[in-house]
Amino acid sequence: MEKITNELELQTIQKSRIGIIGLGNIGLPMAKGLIQAGILREKQLFLSNRVRETTEMLSKDLTNFPEVVIAENNDDVAKNCDIIFVALKQKQIQKEFYQWKELDILKKDALLVSLAAGVRIDTLIKWLGNPSQPMARVMPNIAVAVGKGVFGWTVSDKVTIGQCKTLKYLLSTLGTECLVDSDEKIDTITAVSGSCPAYFFYLAEEMIETAVQMGMQQKQAQKIVQETLIGAATLLDQSQSNVTTLLEQIISKGGTTEAALKVLYFRDIIEKAMKSAKNKAAEIGNHFDLL
To answer: CA-to-CA distance for 289 and 281, rounded, in angstroms?
Structure first.
């Protein structure tokens, strides 16, 4: 049954024109991921970064793929696409939506998918000026660049069941997706997965610098830390044990790991950090809701 469902979703996707506006750290990897997934047909993926010349420069590695169409500009995507991923900063999205509203060029049943942190669906709809426009909000993370993205997403009540299934399928080809029922939960996902790669990289950076201070060569320290963290993440992914059990397997009474963790007890810091990230997302939402 799942195979049949996926085939039906694929058929639906292949009848749709998909647009990506904004070819930065998220938009461009998403485009590459959709192409590599092999689910698109010829001239189905429209790419834009405001003007054609900039789009061609940023997507030079993709222009030879038959699936790709280099749009003249963002308005061209709005006119022609059925699903539009808007990978722009908050103020840029506001500017685009205001322009589409003024020119009345957006396809009325197109699914708009905002990737901007903090901006709530009600705010996006207000900027667009059309309460009937299907709207989704997605919180991605930077791991989409290696096909391991995590996407929290929510939708307006004008998004159809079919559009939900299509978006779910597209996001699942790029990593792991999680549908939630409110903007507040998207703010939580922002703190958990959106910002989490930065927590991970920060830990790696500090470990490398300390290893160098303790006498290791820079390249050697980087390699050991990198492979250790990859190995630990792989074990967490593949093990039948939960996190607590994995910790217990490493911590020996009176051993080196126990000594380290007595110093490294930072549960309160992690809690404060993640709550701070969530509160900032809500603050951003409050700010843009007033504009």
So the answer is: 12
- Which residues, at least 6 apart from 233, have a Cβ–Cβ distance to it below 8 Å? none
Say if residues 32 and 62 touch (Cβ distance below 8 Å): yes
Asked if residue 224 lies in contact with residue 211, where contact means CB atoms within 8 angstroms, the answer is yes
- Tens digits of residue pLDDT in 45-61: 999 998 899 999 999 99
Say which amino acid occupies 79. K
Question: Mind giving me the DSSP string for 11-34?
Answer: HHHTTS-EEEE--STTHHHHHHHH
Look up residue 125 and give its two tokens: 């709809």
Q: Cα dist. 157→117, 160, 184, 252 in Å?
A: 20, 8, 16, 53
d(CA 118, CA 286): 8
Can you give the C-alpha Rg of the chain in angstroms?
A: 22
Residue at token pair 């919180």: 139
Please, what is the end-to-end C-alpha distance for the chain in angstroms? Answer: 46
Q: What DSSP state is assigned to residue 82?
A: S
pLDDT digits (tens, 9 = 90+) for 58-113: 999 998 999 999 999 999 999 999 999 999 999 999 999 999 999 999 998 999 99
- pTM confidence score: 0.90
- Token pair belonging to 138: 């997605």
- Amino acid 148 reads K
